[in-house]
């Protein structure tokens, strides 16, 4: 078995400092992700009144029980929705990730309708398109749990509408490849 040459010295002061810095960065990332989850969960009572599940609960029910879900692009749109770091909710208003449905690895996307009623955010559009591209490139079934208020017209620019058209283009390509599944919420 080949041996890798490395200057890494586990246990050295430099290694320990780098390890601590990485752990702090990961803790910050996880706190940002949790802030978004908590913001979405605050809509729980209004969802319950309508007899609906929160987006993450819908995703969890879709996935095979006990199977992993690798969430992607959790920092999308960070500091774009709000300029104050302590108030920004990253994620682009969209949940996207890889998970197993009926023992098949799939790309799963869900509008985070617990945040701004699922209104599309500019970086959410890009996040959606990246998820679509990954599914197409890897021939993964693409499942879209859509529930959205549409677009927040007060925040939108013409460029975002043009970019949004790319979603439909990619959905058509996924559909033509037999990889697209869209489940609207009733």
SSE layout:
Elements lengths: L12 H29 L2 H6 L5 H8 L6 E3 L22 E8 L2 E8 L10 H17 L3 E5 L11 H19 L3 E5 L2
Parallel strand pairs: 3-4, 4-5
Antiparallel strand pairs: 1-2, 2-3
Description of the molecule:
This protein has about 190 residues and is an alpha/beta fold. The protein has one domain (about 15-185): 2-enoyl-CoA Hydratase, Chain A, domain 1 (Alpha-Beta Complex). The protein has five helices and five strands; from the N terminus they run αααβββαβαβ. It has a five-stranded mixed beta sheet, with helices on both faces. Helix 4 runs parallel beside helix 5 (about 160-175). The longest helix is centred in the N-terminal third of the chain and has 29 residues, at about 15-40. It is globular, with a radius of gyration of 19 Å.
> Can you give the mean pLDDT?
84
Structural class: alpha/beta
Q: Oligomeric form of this entry?
A: single chain
Count the domains. 1
Tell me the name of the CATH class.
Answer: Alpha Beta
CATH architecture designation: Alpha-Beta Complex
Order of helices and strands: HHHEEEHEHE
Task: Please give the count of helices.
Answer: 5
Task: Give the C-alpha Rg.
Answer: 19 Å
Helix share bin: 40-55%
Beta-strand segment tally: 5
Strand order in the sheet with the most strands:
1-2-3-4-5
Global outline: globular
The proportion of residues in beta strands is 15-25%
Outline the biggest β-sheet: 5 strands, mixed
Low-confidence stretches: none
Distance between the termini: 57 Å
């Amino acid at each position: 078995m080949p041996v890798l040459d490395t200057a890494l010295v586990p246990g050295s002061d430099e290694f320990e400092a780098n390890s601590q810095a990485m752990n702090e960065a990961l803790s910050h990332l996880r706190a940002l992700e949790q802030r978004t989850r908590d913001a979405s969960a605050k809509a729980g009572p209004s969802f319950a009144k309508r007899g609906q599940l929160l987006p993450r609960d819908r995703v969890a029910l879709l996935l095979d029980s006990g199977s992993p879900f690798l969430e992607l692009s959790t920092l999308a749109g960070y500091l774009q929705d709000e300029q104050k770091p302590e108030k920004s909710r990253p994620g682009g208003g969209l949940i996207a990730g890889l998970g197993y449905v009926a023992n098949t690895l799939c790309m799963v996307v869900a509008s985070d309708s617990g945040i701004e009623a699922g209104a599309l955010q500019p970086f959410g559009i890009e996040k959606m398109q990246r998820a679509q591209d990954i599914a197409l490139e890897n021939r993964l079934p693409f499942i879209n749990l859509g529930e959205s208020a549409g677009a927040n017209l007060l925040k939108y620019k013409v460029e975002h509408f043009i970019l949004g058209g790319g979603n439909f283009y990619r959905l058509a390509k996924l559909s033509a490849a037999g990889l697209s599944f869209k489940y609207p919420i009733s």
